[in-house]
Amino acid sequence: MNDLFSASDAPESMVRPLAVRMRPRTLDEVVGQSHALTAGSPLRRLADPASRGSLTAPSSVILFGPPGVGKTTLAHIVAKQSGREYEELSAVTSGVKDLREVLRRAHERLVSQGKETVLFIDEVHRFSKSQQDALLPSVENRDVTFIAATTENPSFSVIKPLLSRSVVVKLDSLEPDELRTVLERAITDRAGSTAR
């Protein structure tokens, strides 16, 4: 019998949003953004497991583009493909205390386990100057691989010291044929269907 609580027994794959179920797992599965994912690009270099401990890969990337273009997905993929830990904060809901706690964990992880951390901050333009300043020592010391997402032009919304230590990657809205590819994938891929 179906009742209000029977959904709690449903498999996780049925209750997770379609966008989450269809999220690309590798850079090669990403639709669109080909200009940002060419061989040797900052994101490709960061996603390469050989980039861990490397001083040639960027340690800080700001993803700039409209909503829904894959900024969070790209940060997830970079962390997973490269073998780094992943920590995420939203500048809308997090303060300096939250930031310092994540940076402390990342530093301890690096020192005690030799394990690097991707720190992803969504809506970084919402951080105040002092909150952005708090990031600088960890970015400079490479305690974290810093990836930020913003819908605002970082030249005006990110402090100059942080901006000067970052590679800005501009992301574009998907073209109609790219949207068609995403839709076709959702229809044909088993992860897109909740029917089993």
UniProtKB/TrEMBL annotation:
This chain belongs to which protein, by name?
Answer: Recombination factor protein RarA
Q: Which family does it belong to?
A: Belongs to the AAA ATPase family. RarA/MGS1/WRNIP1 subfamily.
The GO terms this record gives for MF are: ATP binding; ATP hydrolysis activity; enzyme activator activity; single-stranded DNA helicase activity
Q: Which organism is it from?
A: Bifidobacterium canis
Name the InterPro entries on file. Answer: AAA+_ATPase (IPR003593), AAA_ATPase_RarA/MGS1/WRNIP1 (IPR051314), ATPase_AAA_core (IPR003959), P-loop_NTPase (IPR027417)
Top-rank taxon: Bacteria
Q: Which GO terms describe its biological process?
A: DNA synthesis involved in DNA repair; DNA-templated DNA replication
Q: What is the lineage of its organism?
A: Bacteria, Bacillati, Actinomycetota, Actinomycetes, Bifidobacteriales
Indicate the segments forming the AAA+ ATPase domain, all copies: 57-173
